[in-house]
Amino acid sequence: MRVLVTAASEHGSTEAIAQAIGEVLRSGGHDVRVLPPDEAGALAGLDAVVLGSAVYAGHWLEPATALATRVATELPGRPVWLFSSGPVGKPGGKLARQMGEDPAELAAVLQATHAREHKMFAGKLERGELHGLQRAALWVVRGLEGDFRDWQEIRGWAQSIAAQLSEVTAA
Ligand SMILES: Cc1cc2nc3c(=O)[nH]c(=O)nc-3n(C[C@H](O)[C@H](O)[C@H](O)COP(=O)(O)O)c2cc1C
Residue 106 burial by CB count (10 A; 0-12/13-18/19+): exposed, middle or buried? Predict the structure, then answer.
């Protein structure tokens, strides 16, 4: 299966999740491209898409929503999986839970792409990497820094996608 794995990312941590998913799908025997949404190019010929975004202030990044629209119109009927990366802070903590709420665009993107699933992964936040406004938005909130990405969970999800793609191939 020819698969595009793509994620919108401000500071690279969601992009790294896309890379990890791509590696798992590749080792499952699929023909995988991992590219930022802006560089995805022509979608014709793809058999499946895994599309993700970092979440900022409750929203997906624009390149991800724009690509979702293209996927819906250019690849109707192809299997699509969605993921978001966001929650930071102590797992299960109140702030992390609030952060982990579905991005505002999710319902519309799910409806447009008929995605099989949406997965929310924990993210990574390094204060030193943020630009001024982002830092200002978070200065009141302590304890959010760190890398909370769960690579086992991410790879496990990718393995379930690889298995579903193989079923589609076999059908
Ligand atoms: C200003 C700011 C706002 C954020 N808002 C949210 C949010 O609403 N929901 C969420 O789950 N994560 C939120 N986060 C956490 C980011 O999504 C997380 O750091 C993510 O891993 C960043 O991904 P990136 O490195 O690909 O840009 C926010 C982070 C910053 C700096």
Answer: buried
